[in-house]
Amino acid sequence: MIEKLIIWTSFDYVELFILALLPLLYKLFFWLYTIQLKEYRLDRFNEYLRTKQWKSALFNIFFVVEIILLVYYSAIWWLYLLEMPIHIAFWWVGYHIMFYYLIILNIFVIWKILRKRLLKPKFTSRLIILLLLFIIWGTIDLCLFYKFNLWNFTYLYILLVFLTMPLIIFFYNLLSLPLVNYKKNKQINSAIKKSEKIDEVIKIWITGSYGKSSVKEFLSSILEQNWELLKTPENQNTEMSVSALILNKLNNSYKYFIAEMGAYKIWEISILWKIVNHKYWFLTAIWNQHIWLFGSQENIKIWKSEIAESILKNNWILYLNWDNNNIRETEFNEKLNLIKYWIKSENKLDAVSKIVSTENSITKFDFSYKEIRSEFEINMIWEHNVVNLTWVIACCIDLGLKIEDIKKYLKNIKTPNNTKAIIKLDDNILIDDTYNLSEAGLKSGLEMLKNYSPHPNPPLWEERGQDEFLKVLVLDDILELWKKAEEIHYNIAKEIAINKQVDKVLFVWVNYKEDFEKGLVYWGFNKNNIMSTEDFSPLQNSVILFEGRNAKKYLNKLSK
After folding, report:
1. Could you tell me the fold of the domain covering 421-559?
2. Beta strands in 379-519 (DSSP E)
3. pTM score, whole prediction
4. CB neighbours of 413 closer than 8 A, spacing ≥ 6?
5. Residue spans per domain, the chain
6. pLDDT over 70 for what percent of the chain?
């Protein structure tokens, strides 16, 4: 009789499983989205574990409640094993606590869905493999519950799944690795073989810590004027995405194939250049993201030796951004076919540009390469655009384009979407740099603000002249800086405060907000000019720089 009172009907437990389904899917999708964002890589996910975002995602109020409930139901089981009748009352209370807790979780998830705040991973073949493993696991567990009458474990089972979801995903990710690696290697090898056979297409590889997408779009916009061109879409720059593009689209009908590619480890570089099988190679920059992901400066040197060996072996041409300190401080073999470019005309290099004037959103600059001297004009401003275009022009010359044609194409060239694009809105100027964010990219954006009437001590609104702008920075986290992340955010804040680069600041994310704002205040920035997300609203006569993807929603807020 007591046993019958202890064990509720299986329908009651199935009811709990049904109520747990939506919160379970929410947690599952969140962690799948996160690990997919880190490209299923333990090294990149390890950096995420250092952030406050990770801590708030795991150790939140729900985590605390679930830990308490887990202790509660574990205590009930001890009472049951000790055959103490009082556990029946605790069990009855526990059922209703779990029932209403799951109701609250469902309301929370539905609220997220209605606000369009649900994070959804992309349904790739790898994700489908993980989901299939989850479905198989869940089906087996339910069968075991039914066959061996394990319904009393329902409470503990649901709570343990909720609490250990990240670990479960990692386990299934590891479990799927043999199949994933087999499929991955097969696809990469097929892409390498196809790329080797397609030898009529001129292949160009662009890599670096930042600037890859900008230079890819600049070069593509020129070459596609007269020839069929294939390029990697947006920021899809992994070996799998590039391999898929080669297998699905690349053929000899194209004149050019331009691949933007990223890498995080030494051995990956050799795989990537085999996939593209290119002749022209561009190294746009080496910055903190590369240094910390590669592990050390010593690994960077090993990487350089790999580059040198491949260039010599394959008779490739490597264009180097000599404006980048880390590249400039690296020793390269003199036997390599190197093209060094930058915008400091006092130094004699291969390709050099010098800005002549910037006026009315038009930049004129002198350019020299080999025996060619010419002046170019672009409908863009800022130094970084001229840096990127210097090697683009040099490459176009090496590819046989005429200077007159290059000049004509450059007049119509535009900055890539969300990459320091200028938007004029009423009395405000918005600078959209939300595509990607790096330390160097942020500093470049801050340099842009110097062109807008600098104000060490901004006047009151009613005293502000028509051409005077309030400078506002809306800043996201700079990611994948590893152990230097806090220090770098602090030093950026120090530079902003000391040099009075902006009047107001809004830091839109959580990971390094404290380090950044601490640096601002310590070095003299007015604390009242650090805005909160609630304070952010349209301002008169402002130039607002939006840096990073999480700043995008604040840009959209003003643009609507």
Report:
1. Protein-Tyrosine Phosphatase; Chain A (3.90.190)
2. 421-425, 428-433, 470-475, 504-507
3. 0.78
4. 218, 221, 222, 378, 379, 380, 389
5. 2-163, 200-410, 421-559
6. 86
